[in-house]
Structures
1.
Amino acid sequence: MANKKSSKAVLFLYEGDTEQGFYDLLFEKLKLNGNLQIKKRCLNGVWNLNKNVAHHIDRYLYNKANTHVKELSVFVAYDREGDRNEPPKMSADEIIKRVKDKRLKGINEIIATKMLESWFFIDVVGIYKFLKVPVAKRNPKKYAQYENYDWRDLAKLFSSFDSQKRYMKGRRTAHFLESLDILKIYESCEDLNKGMKDMLAKIK
């Protein structure tokens, strides 16, 4: 467990409920849940993202419990909602201008392309197992280019193979995330892997 009086800290902001479930599991797998240098907060969407992120940073920096923090790094995890030609929704420069605090040392993005559900297809075998799809009806090679698929494709799999289960974007489906190989997704997804390693480097 990290020293709570360390001068270095990370504020990890994520888009919504699905991200919360995913990153809670990832932090657990990486043994980060007990790290007192990292605080996680939900953005409840990406509307007015720059303003919302700045608000969360201000709240953190001016919380009396965080007066010992001299170097704050911020990581923001959200969906691109499109392919890689779609520009980021956030401007780090604008947020830094809003915050105007020398303790803020950087703002970093962990962007899921097209969206977080796209990453789930890295473990399409886990999806098939969760839905109890017969092996003869599985086609994992179809989803090899996982960034081509999104929540709609996931919802189609749910409706095609399990009449009792539904996948709805923004809502957690009971036991689904827990059935996925989170570490496989982490190790296979360059954007996620790099983002998490960059985050850990900030608090060494």
2.
Amino acid sequence: MSRTRHRWPGPARGAVGLALCLLLLSLGLASAVLGWRHVLNDLHSAQALAEQHRARLEAQWLLAWGMAQWPQDPAAQQAWWDQGQSSDCPLGLDRTRLWQCRRLPAPADGADAALGGPSYWRAWRDLSRAPHALQTEAVVARSAGARSQLQQQWWVPSLGRAGSDPPAQGWVTGACDQGQAGLAWRQVMGQIQPSQVQALSQAQAVASGQLLGTRGRNVYWVDAAQDWRTPLGSTAEPVLLVFSEAACASRCPRLLAPLVGTVIWRHACGQGLGDTPLLQAPVLGQAVIDASQVHEADRVWVMGHASADQAYRLVWPEGMDLALPLPVAGSWREGAP
């Protein structure tokens, strides 16, 4: 029995071959397009990573540049801070404290010219609780969309190391009868200089917006000879009140309002004391006077308290040179505050 073979006509076989060729060509083109898209995506990812890396390097440079702008001379610091505004402060700061903030735009000749958006260096510190801890931040925004934000904290010169702990009896007197002028100050304040206290008092007065604004303020340097009539401090927030040599030039001011913390009369070994008692209000903490004796009537007004030195005793790293800024160990980080 013979088999019948069917053959495709010539034109039909050509059409099928053409279709197969077109199908293979389409698959090849699709594969090429997908491969090219992957290449483009990889290229864009590499460019984005390179931009991000560059932004981070520029932020590191900006962080160092900003600290170079901060004046180490205490005499120039207040003028430098005065150029800042409240809007320079980061969002979320505790507004019951006193803050100093300064924001500087990135220099046009320093970081890359491709910077876009707000690129800046910023510094701020808590004047009432940690005036020696300076928080810094560098933000770089590049025009290609990359952004980097770095932060670092510094120990900066402020108040020196404090002296002895507050005495239980509350009174600290000097030894003028032995020719040791200034002994009472050195015993209590240690390495803290009067100029440092005066500078911190001025900074707090500026930050508070009024000469005797008490909210958040805890250091007062007084040159006026008038008696003091404003209650100050609490056991949670003790204060330091210093009547300067100028205040005691003729007669030291009297304390006529309650105080929690430390009050100091600076005078030239008894000059300006007279026979009038200095206290007519209670002091919970310590009273310091550079005299060999205090008026008998003043003794009953003072009661010792362990937190009397809280307003001026700062915690410093052991062995640190307090005249130079020092990065806080472990404070460098990336991201928002």
